[in-house]
Amino acid sequence: MTKYIFKRILQAIGVLLLVSVITFLLMDLAPGSPFASEKSQSPEVLEALNKKYGLDQPKSVQLKNFIVNALKGDFGVSLKMQKNRPVMDIIKEMFPTSAKLGLLALLWATLVGVPLGCLAAYNRGKPIDSILRVITTIGISAPGFVVATLLLLFFGVKLKLLPTMGLVGAKSYIMPVFALGFYSMCYIARLSRSSMLDAIGQDYIRTARSKGVSESKILFKHALKNAFIPVLTYLGPLTAGIITGSMVVESVFSVQGMGRYFVNSVLNRDYPIIMATTLLFATLVVIMNMVVDILYRFIDPRIDLTKGA
Description:
It is built from twelve helices and no strands. It has 309 residues and is mostly helical. The relative contact order is 0.14.
């Protein structure tokens, strides 16, 4: 296991370096400049601004400087969104909000999605299975902004049961968390259903039934353990994506989080923030995938991690 983790760490370093290079090149190809929309800026002033922030240097030098400084934990300062404020301070301020929303959404999506999927599989072909499949299909098909907007209009504006803006108090989390986790819950439910159907059709399940093992024990002790592996695979990248924020949910409910801020930084060509948030997401994806691979061994000891290393 130690050898496997060491190999994955080396691979992660290579992935993050590749992500840095690709992100930098894409930013360079995109038209515009952080200072292009500044009013009444003379060419001399723009040249001075580029020189101040090192944007006048060759691209290779800029990339090298970014990587060297990033290894020291320095991602530079915001060029436009919060001018001259260190990027790490911005991330430290906004990431906890998005992470808290994301973890709560992930928690309810998993705790509801997996049992619903198991329930649908156990009652395959029955009315409850059809109802759950319709609900999950709608949930997967409905755009996130539609779900968030409907919640806002119905529970916030019409019924006035929940706060509509910001995160003040426990009640203000209900709609953003539900909207953020609804798609994931529906997807997890469908994935759990298909995985459970595959598991309960295996020979070892038929053997357990022939021995008189109760259906509840077969479902939750034997079948669910193997059926959960595909769900766990999905939860890895989902965790990284959901805790780094959602532009749609944060915009609809006026939440100051990373997702909304990242999109605005792209629109404003705020290069240091784009690079830092992209690397943060890539790092979380790499970490969560490695955690998922390790958890495979605890769920099914027969899995040999060294073969995929």
